[in-house]
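Honest question from a wet-lab person: if I give you the sequences of every part of a complex, can you actually get the arrangement of the whole thing, not just the pieces? Trying it with mine:
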Amino acid sequence: MKRITLAVTFFLVLSVCASASASTISRTPVQEKKSLYTRLGGYDAIALVVDDFITRLATDKRFEKFFTGFSDDSKKRLRQHILDQFCAAAGGPCVYTGREMRTSHKGLGITEADWDAAAKHLVAALDKYKVPEAEKNDLLAFVVSQKKDIVEK
Ligand code: HEM
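Yes, you can. This is the full assembly:
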């Protein structure tokens, strides 16, 4: 009889402990919101968008004068800079090693209309890969924050 009482007590103590730890788990603070980098699908997903964006810019006559004389390697470097910039801005594990936007665009005479055309290409690239509205707007917000340093006219 003593043994049975001991076993029952032991079982009761175990269930109290189990329910206590379960309630601790359920009280764990809500997980931090995922970074934009993660929500966009990570590096490869961002690279697909950047490549599509650049292809659109490179094949648009309007932008021809800006990229005339660029070697294939210079284009690759520009592509990598834009990719690193987006990745870093989204909270990813990349480091942007390019120049400041004001420095690299100074003297190019980029107009408001050029800006609008470039922004449309970026939206088209994001839409092509079905980037959800929230992530699209977050990335566009970062790009728009640079407008004042890129547009001169
Ligand atoms: C849509 C927003 C834009 C973003 C995010 C962006 C981003 C960048 C980045 C990261 C670089 C590399 C900086 C470096 O070489 O160190 C760059 C360079 C450059 N961008 Fe933009 N840019 C934007 C808009 C534009 C527009 C609208 C034009 C032309 C109409 C333009 C033309 C150029 C050119 C020609 C360079 C190369 C400058 C050089 O190597 O001397 N960009 N841009």
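Two things worth pointing out. The mean pLDDT is 88. Residues 36-150 form a domain with the Globin-like fold (CATH 1.10.490.10).
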